[in-house]
Amino acid sequence: MKTNRRDLLKAAAAAGALGAVWPLVSGLSPAQAVEAAGLLGAEYDPAPFTLGVASGDPTPTGFVLWTRLAPEPLAAEQALPEVVEVKWVVAEDRDLRRVVARGTAPASATLGHSVHVSVDGLRDGRQYWYAFSALGRRSRLGRTRTAPAGPVSRVRFASANCQAFHGGYYAAHRGIAREDIDFVVHLGDYIYEGGPVSGPRGNGTAVDFTLGDYRRRHALYKGDRSLREAHAAHPWFLTWDDHEVVDNYSGTGGGAPFMQRRAAAYQAWYENMPHRDDSETALPDPEIHRVRRWGDLLELTVLDLRSYRSAQNLPDGTILGARQKDWLKRGVDRAPDSWHCWVNSIMLNQLRGRPGGDFMFTDQWDGFLAEREEVLTHVHRSGLEDLVVITGDWHSAFVGDVRTDFDEPSSPIVGTEFTAHSISSNAYSPAWNAANGPRMGAANPHLQYFEGNRYGYDLYEVTPERWTTSMRVVQDLQDPVSPVTTLTAFHVDRGKAGAYEDPATKNSPAQYRRG
Predict the structure, then answer these.
(1) What is the pLDDT at residue 25?
(2) DSSP letters along 169-225, please?
(3) What integer pLDDT is reported at residue 200 of this predicted model?
(4) H/E element holding 51?
């Protein structure tokens, strides 16, 4: 087993020597930063494709392919020509002999020498392989697929969220890479703007983080082999939360210094993700919210809960923004007869800390009460059925009924929310979980389940008759090859609101279960 990442950082902090082991400390050369990252278990693909390859946003006719040329991954800027031509190829076989598409794309210094290739004209519901080449070298092989069109009997996918590099290894991503799934959904907090140390800047103020800082942080995270494997194995859909920019930020608040920082963070995110932007230009504001369909079985609605929100706890506050809210409500009105999955970065359900007490966190939907009631009432009045919301952020697992009025236990149930464990970001302590699990259960009658002592990802299997969520957890966060097992599973039957736990797993450990 490699060096325990989290304990090494704690020991260095206690000894006052964080600068010797944290790769992003100022003053290190790119080579010294890579060496420091290696002590924390990072390793990179051969140059110039050090950060790997990825695909995303599959449709029935294509997908987006991504890579980024970074011969010195932890450098803010690369010692490369202003523009490098990158060749790409897509084939029906892993040997890349049955080629169905190929071309070249410019990797420019303006966008960090990243490449986003929108491949179209392919057959639906098919698996494909791809690779890039540039500067006399070829990238690793990637595997992806197009979405199906028409009748579908099953879809399997996973969600990931909250993967603080300093929190532990990405054994959960290793598990995702090996799953037999159609795609991955990332629910946000792909990086953390803070960390054990950020040099003289500390954890940053509104003017501290530059584009180069964010580029280096993304490159550090991609240094975990398991994350690159998960990207290369499956296409991804992506949204974001706050730590891609700064903790608990509002996308519409702050003055010019903050807006400069936000623009830098958004650009670095785009440079490092397999994201297809549907707007005319991806920058300075990538368009995240979208609807994608997996045949006639699943409608996936990806939400952006950061870019357009107002401040919290205002009578007329908004988490969606006016345009995105109208878009979401129109989508509800036009929704097909299928399962409906909202990709939601922060908890939709109400969460009080004790009966009749305050909300635990108003950075989530609890800080936007009128808009939440408006949206969920619209769902109910529209007659929309079979709504499942998948959520990250909390570093713990929750299962809850989605109601039009959370303070009224007899109000209609309009869906189920599954909040997943984190990949590696620190959860609350076992003692906190044991004490507060029952309190949260008593304070929130819609809550069915809470478990906060583990790390991992959720795996979803959806058929025309039933939705199943399996909580996949790692045995040891500090083991990069830790085994992955299923903690428990919940089902939702088609046409019937509300989830129920699988009888075979309902005796698994948890800090709260509704009786």
Answers:
(1) 86
(2) --HHHHHHHHS--SEEEE-S-SS-S--S-BTBTTT--TTT--HHHHHHHHHHHTTSH
(3) 29
(4) none
